[in-house]
Design a protein that fits this description.
The protein has about 240 residues and is α/β, with parallel strands linked by helices. Helices cover about 35% and strands about 20% of the residues. Strand 2, helix 4 and strand 3 form a beta-alpha-beta unit. Belongs to the class I-like SAM-binding methyltransferase superfamily. EFM4 family.
């Protein structure tokens, strides 16, 4: 579920409902929050890869991958630590992790076409130590557990746009995260829809902020801010 834009923007920042905030139901529902949308996206991406070898774009750009890997290196995360990429999309981030030497990495996505695309790209890269699974993170299988690191680049954003009770789905996401992540494990999230303060509120139960990662700032009309939030939480 995590593919498809340039630089440090996601697939498109969500529109806020008038007077709303994401703490309630402040995001306008969007097709970006539906499985049907992402199935269609990855069916097209898979066909494009099979015909032209194009792996597709990277949600939040290459810098977002570099930012996360640098953090893992800075904090000396063992290369054999179990890493889960939530909503892996085309699996390009998994490839980067493997190239940096990480050897216990898993990518999940609820779109079978995304997992097929990821598998094809990983095979083309000549990598064999990456696990791929078709999984709905809101209803994960019992085997999906015990991870030292969980990474999300845009999946929580997409879930927040689901037209069918997004608030409840966000709560279920946090419950699933708590179940699959080890105690003292780290959760690295990159979002273009949520601010730091909002993410702190969303993940207030069972997690604490470990570090805020640097992201590019913008200035417009005398105001400045970040177009992307990138935070590291630790499970308590």
């Amino acid at each position: 579920m995590s593919e498809g834009a340039d630089d440090d923007g996601g697939a498109g920042a969500a529109a806020r409902s008038p007077g709303g905030s994401p703490g309630g139901d402040g995001f306008a529902p969007s097709a970006l929050g539906t499985r049907e949308h992402w199935d269609a996206v990855y069916e097209r991406e898979l066909q494009t890869f099979q015909e032209y070898g194009d792996t597709g774009e990277i949600w939040f750009g290459e810098e977002s991958m570099t930012r996360l890997i640098r953090w893992m290196q800075k904090h000396k995360i063992p290369l054999d630590a179990s890493v889960l990429d939530i909503g892996t999309g085309n699996g390009v981030f998994l490839v980067e992790l493997a190239k940096f030497g990480f050897s216990n990495i898993t990518g999940i996505d609820y779109s079978p076409s995304a997992i097929q695309l990821s598998g094809n790209i990983i095979e083309k890269e000549g990598l064999s130590n990456i696990k791929l699974k078709v999984e709905d993170f809101l209803n994960p299988s019992a085997k999906l557990s015990g991870f030292h690191i969980c990474i999300d680049k845009g999946t929580f954003d997409a879930i927040s746009l689901n037209p069918d009770n997004a608030i409840e789905k966000r709560k279920q996401y946090v419950k699933s995260l708590s179940r699959v992540l080890k105690v003292k494990g780290f959760f690295l999230i990159t979002s273009c829809n949520w601010t730091k303060e909002e993410l702190l509120n969303e993940f207030s139960e069972g997690f604490e902020l470990f570090e805020e990662l640097w992201t590019p700032r913008f200035s417009f009309g005398g105001r400045s801010g970040n177009s992307v939030a990138a935070l590291v939480f630790q499970k308590t």
